[in-house]
Amino acid sequence: MEKPFYDILGEKYPPSQDNKLLSSQLNLNPNFTISIPNFSDNLKQHTTIESLIDIEFQRGVEEGMKLLPNLNKLSIDGEGSKISLDARKKRHNDSLEFKLIEDKASNLSDLNLLGVRDCKIPVFSCEETIRDEMHDKSLLNHEDSYARKEILSLRGIMELKEKSCIKNQIQNQDDHHTNLRALLISCAEAISMDNNRIAGELLNEIRMQASPTGDGIQRLACILADGLEARLAGSGSATYHRLVTRQLSTADFLNAFHVCIRASPMIRVSYHFANMSILNAAGTASKIHIVDIGISYGFQWPSLIQALAKRKGGPPNLRITGIDWPQPGFRPAERIKETGRRLEAYAQEFKVPFEYQGTATQWESICIADLSINNDELLIVNSMYGLSRVRDEPLLGINSPRNQLLKLIQETKAKVFVQGIFNVSFSPLFITRFRKVLLHYSKLFDMLDSLIPRDYKSRELIERTFYSPCIINQIACEGSELAVRPETYKQWHKRDLQASFQPLPVDPSVVEECQNIVRNGYTEGFFIEMDNHWLLQGWKGSINYAISLWKSQVE
After folding, report:
1. Which domain covers residue 232, as residue numbers?
2. Which superkingdom, per the lineage (predicted)?
3. What is the pLDDT of residues 186-238, one digit of tens each?
4. DSSP track, 128-143
5. For residue 128, which of 338, 434, 409 has the smallest C-alpha distance?
6. What's 274's domain CATH number?
7. Residue 490 and residue 379 share a domain
């Protein structure tokens, strides 16, 4: 065996103090050395395995540090549950904010199988603009004259376009609509009977008559044809998931939202009814806690924050717990975090003490502990138009996830439970379900055709982003793959009573305010009426939305 260089030189080998931990982890003997031949006369020092590892490790750290911002800007919160990194750069005159966020990976099934359900995955996120003038126009309460001006502006555009149409085309258009509907139903029937050849021929004919830029039924036919084609190919689930995983920017969503509230009063009425009911229930409470199941972008709450700021005696402490489904990809909580930042910006402007907690999770897995309920706070539970996405297997009866979620809400003993639903019910049988989908969405697409110009990009976003995934899911999927199972307000009323809720009376003055919103410039055809404690909204005789107020029967 060759003698180490230190033995040759008659010196004692100094132990490495910096690498004891690393050496122990690698199970290396700190006294073990390796002889290196004398490749050069200038080689004066023997290198150990530990020092080689140390050199490479330090080199890696140095390279990695070049990619990170200044460590002086790294802050860790008191609970140790979040790490935020705030570094701003000017790029093309746009301010981009980067944050290092630890997001739960609870929706990643492959990680769950490895037993790391609570694992935190740090990811970089690029924030969008929290708010701008468009946000304020759409989300805050303005004078009636301003809202009326916005509404009449869009109505004026539509009236000009209607005058430019040739009147004698109306009869031909009606015949065309009847033929297209008949083709769609015939194609669905052929698919249900496994007559693929006939179904394929009918699909080709439907494609020739449909148009993504045409009238309401032509645009709907494009989406229905996509669903029928996916069902025929057996790719319904994949097609649906591809649609729901599309990333839509907040700016695009807000543009579509802005057009919606200019064209239709339904969203404005829904938010106004809910927020005024919350204000009435809150009274003079000094602390208010709102649990919003399905908060999404949080567009309901800026106007409430604005109203609380004007409350006599000063605003209360407002805490919002936002719950929503995880977003696809590696940032499941990104949107819900952005919602919190936006609401915080409004609270700061209106000087309302504010706290926000966002949770991205499967709604069926929510428990009371997730809501952080405090006894000294007035509790409100709000869920607008999202409960139909909670699974409801009829075979499970009262133990279905939908009923279990209602039971949890009932157990919170909230002062008020505000519930908004889409008033429609589809059948479990394909042909019957297809006919109901065709009827329901034909009315909605005809409404859009009467209210929004066909060349508006926002209209395409509404149809392709909001409606298309649900339509495709109802047409191309079956059984447990049916993601949305809506019910009528009468069905929900029965379900709520079975969950030990009791309906609360509606303030007539709030109903009158909602009716005034509809009268303030919106086109004829919209209506509001009350039925058995439900505020109903619709278009030309069809009830589209329903909202009600509930509280637990058990005190």
Report:
1. 166-247+426-484
2. Eukaryota
3. 999 999 999 999 999 999 999 999 999 999 999 999 999 999 999 999 999 99
4. PPS--HHHHHHHS---
5. 338
6. 3.40.50.150
7. yes
